[in-house]
Amino acid sequence: MRHFKILIPIIIIISFAFLPSACGPAKVGGQKVPDFLTSTLDGTSFALMDWLQGPDNKVLILTFFANGCELCGEDLKFLQRLQDQYADQGVRVFCVFTGSLSNIKAAKKYLEGLKINLPVLMDNKRVITKRYNVAGFPSTYAIDREGFLRIRSLGCSEEVKTNFESKLKNLLTIPG
Length: 176
Hints:
Layout: H1 2-23, E1 26-32, E2 37-39, E3 45-47, H2 48-52, E4 59-65, H3 70-86, E5 91-97, H4 104-114, E6 120-122, H5 127-131, E7 139-143, E8 148-154, H6 158-172
Parallel strand pairs: 4-5, 5-6
Antiparallel strand pairs: 1-8, 2-3, 4-7, 7-8
């Protein structure tokens, strides 16, 4: 039993050593995003590939959130700012709500309280979450104009946000 008292703190310390690389944005160049079909919070049909092949040809940011996630609110505010700031450069942010259908009213109230007016895609059966290998919340993905996954981010620390925005700016300089 005495060995466990020593071993547990060592494991925790080692785990924290890997935390920055696990939570920071990572370039995932060359991987086409998985397609999906869903609806928006207001009931409109949404097909990812149709949207990517549309005339707008924008960099798409998908952020996965849940009502009970403390960091998700901060992340959604950050992404609302990115949408507002970079929309004219070709950025479009979509939120992916991973809660159940019975929580739609709560999700709407949550977003209204945060003053978030981003479109929300439904993932009540977590099909999209599984296809994108979401490991935790908030998780954010940037998809380039040709449908390739370019940035993946987990968490919402200042370092994560700064790295994500920096990589997004670089992505916006790539001609569409």
